Amino acid sequence: MKILFCNIKWMKEYRGINENDEISSMTKSSNKKIKNAEQYNFLNLDGYYYGYVSAKAGSKKKVELLLEDIYPDSKGKEIVDDVLVIWIAKRPNEKAGHRIVGWYKKARVYKSYKENSLGVYNIKASVEDCLLIPPIYRNYLIYPARIIGAEKGLGQSNIWCPRGENAREIVENCINYINNYSYERFDEHITEEQLNFITKDKLDTLECYVKKGEELLHINPLKTVQYCNKLINEKGEDLTALYNKALGLESLRFYSKAREVLGYILEKDEQHKEAKAKMDNINRLLKNIEEVS
Predict the structure, then answer these.
(1) Backbone φ, ψ for residue 20 (5° rounding)
(2) How far is CA 250 from CA 193, 195, 211, 239, 271, in A?
(3) 178: which residues sit within 8 A by CB, 6+ positions away?
(4) 282: which residues sit within 8 A by CB, 6+ positions away?
(5) Using one digit for the tens of pLDDT, what is the confidence trace for 192-220?
(6) 292 in Cβ contact with 115 (< 8 Å)
(7) pLDDT in tens, 63-74
């Protein structure tokens, strides 16, 4: 199994810096693309997380991840697939050790950073293969090599690929921890089942579901989708409900699914102005993702 430990800065949610979730120490990089890029490591973008770890550490000012140093058989390759990426961070004011904050399973690791509508990234994985731990449960400590011994932890670099007998016990313990993790996750993991769920809420009329769904669009877009599912299930094909569902999917950043719904609307009514305009916007968003992923 290919494993990569990635040291990033501490945040609660990794869904963007805001007044309720600041990053532990601001990067002093002059490169605006790279600066604090890990802030989006657990923000769903069309069913994927796009993570970033800085390759810069100590006196080494590398921009690329030297994959051949991490995995000898990857010489000349631009990507390495099927990697277990374990994200670790130092809790503010904690002197020694980094805590596991989450992981990507079956991840793709890029040699050079890529760009999308969020910024830059060098690691990508499907949301369903990832997990972010709530801050209260981030108890698993990974100590640096200077404390625990050579080849047993991070050195000066922000990345560590454990190899050899010295690291075996640490690796086995981490894998066991990940496989048996039983607390809740802290990231946005919206399943296919949730997107297809028909609300059980009881409203007076079917039209009430349309109105309520529109009211919830910017508060709880998943509810909007589920209210639209109710109307479509009861009434059958309804372009207003389908369009509102597409808006809900867009707000949840499931752009490909929103495009599918909009495409269906335009098959039924090619003059649907709102759907045409929204489709153009969705296509631009997806182009920003698909061109570099």
Answers:
(1) -100, -5
(2) 17, 12, 18, 16, 21
(3) 84, 86, 103
(4) 250, 255, 258, 259, 262
(5) 999 999 999 999 999 899 999 999 999 99
(6) yes
(7) 677 677 667 677
Q: How far apart, in whole angstroms, are the C-alpha atoms of residue 52 and residue 79?
A: 14
Are residues 124 and 48 in contact, defined by beta-carbon separation less than 8 angstroms? yes
pLDDT one-digit tens code per residue, 14-41: 999 988 888 876 555 556 667 888 999 9
Q: Which residue is associated with the tokens 């003059």?
A: 271
Q: What are phi and psi of 79, to 5 degrees?
A: -140, 155
**Cβ within 8 Å of residue 143, ≥6 positions away:** 96, 97, 98, 152, 153
Q: Report the relative pairing of strands 48-51 and 98-115 from DSSP bridges.
A: unpaired
Structure tokens belonging to residue 221: 């877009």
Number of residues in the chain: 293
Rounded Cα gap, residues 58 and 139, in angstroms: 27
Contacts of 132 (CB under 8 A, 6+ apart): 13, 14, 42, 101, 102, 185, 186, 187
Alpha-carbon gap, residue 198 to 67, rounded angstroms? 46
For CA atoms 274, 275, 280, 283, the dihedral sign is positive
Q: Which helix (H) or strand (E) holds 166?
A: helix 165-179
| SS3 assignment, position 3 | strand
